[in-house]
User: Fold this.
Amino acid sequence: MLGAIEAGGTKFVLAVGPSPERITARHTIPTRDPETTLAEAAEWLAGQGGITALGIGSFGPVELGRTSPRWGFITTTPKPGWADCDIAGYFGGVLGVPVGFDTDVNAAALAEHAASGSAGGSLAYLTVGTGIGGGLVLDGQPVHGIAHPEVGHIYPRRHPEDRDFPGTCPSHGDCLEGLASGPAIMARWGMSLSHLPADHPGHAIIAECIAQACHVLFASVAVEDVVVGGGVANTPGLVERVAQRARELDAGYLPGTARHRVIRPRLGSEAGITGAMMLADGAAKA
Amino acid sequence: MLGAIEAGGTKFVLAVGPSPERITARHTIPTRDPETTLAEAAEWLAGQGGITALGIGSFGPVELGRTSPRWGFITTTPKPGWADCDIAGYFGGVLGVPVGFDTDVNAAALAEHAASGSAGGSLAYLTVGTGIGGGLVLDGQPVHGIAHPEVGHIYPRRHPEDRDFPGTCPSHGDCLEGLASGPAIMARWGMSLSHLPADHPGHAIIAECIAQACHVLFASVAVEDVVVGGGVANTPGLVERVAQRARELDAGYLPGTARHRVIRPRLGSEAGITGAMMLADGAAKA
Assistant:
């Protein structure tokens, strides 16, 4: 039996099942302080009986370096209490099973890649919600580099009608997250994107920001698909606008252009927990 | 004996040697039409005697898909006569040896990665010259995605003093290549960057463009090093300016930030041909 945790800043989604494609029980708990949250998650997982490996897709930043003594830690997060939290070590110790560990968005990218049916393909998963993050799978493997991708913090070129907003990112001001995350949209217009009138320029402004990120991913690593998930991405028509604008930005130039797709998650909101199940499966086989 | 070709739009550099680190003979020929150029290159290589494998790092776009019938082709280049040129197939046929093939910038990235001594590390090689291109090595392997990286065609955020220049890229206007390549600099100011006075705003404008690309590579794939080569990068002080500006853009945020470096090529102008020798070595062992 595989166990899985999608560890988010607001909630932890827990699941068990015999294979990544088959979740037989699930449970969601609110994210509070680490002690309370981790203990409650471990109790539920232990109560399912017979877990042989666990996968965790976690909010970050996290340490993924296999040779680091801090592998499996949430590291420098501003979330109160959670900095330097040894989340993988905790569950490995309490449950006594091998643990697969990656970022929440790399887990989602793994699951979306598997769902695409493209064995050797390349895919990015972009989540646009409370924050903006990106996961990346190249040739079937999640990308870590020397840490992990943080594509939410690139600086998109500003839309011509969007010159003045200073952005909300405490580190970067008007990076992608500072311009187009849920809180940035709220700070700009006092409501969510899906509540703005259909003819409001905000729709084109946010689509431009996200399309710039898609173009960066197509141009810099030649992914086939950019999957756009997260709460903001549920705004009707947004992903279609982004896809159209990304095509315009490329202008048919890039060598992979005919195969580029900007799409909604094939797995919907199941991508993250399914990816965590895949991490468990990998740990079981390691 | 390994043979290698660095196939550029202006010249072909040819080399042979017993290992990638040891080039024992080299020859440079001007790039003319494919028939003349390829025949002259093949004649010189055949004359060196006993080549057992060939590596080619080529200008692009190229086809790298191993299952494609057009693997080893230069594909849609606007360079007269060179579109749909089966460059790997030509040399494999004439010389009767296995051929390793990649982009010129992936070859350079491979060689710079080897020179860095970081076995599992991640590195990008950016060339800023007649065009702007990028190669990428992650976990020791060159990145292809579904085609190959073309990071010269992202849209950098414009410098505040650089709002008006429309750019020179026929496809994108003011993409990175359209703003900061050698021909773009010439079109802007009528001279090369190294001929502009030291207090000319052009230095900051070009550094800003290239630093945006470095930040994109740090944020999207978490490379450790961005190596900046090419003719424009030889401008005194430019790479140092780019490194400084990239640090400012990151603001200490990214999880790998302490290890990020923007540097000049460790191998100087030898990166491309050394990488092509490495491709030959890989083909010999395949």
In short: The first helix of chain B runs from residue 34 to 48. Chain B has two domains: 2-106+269-285, 116-266. Chain B touches chain A through 48 residues (CB under 8 Å).
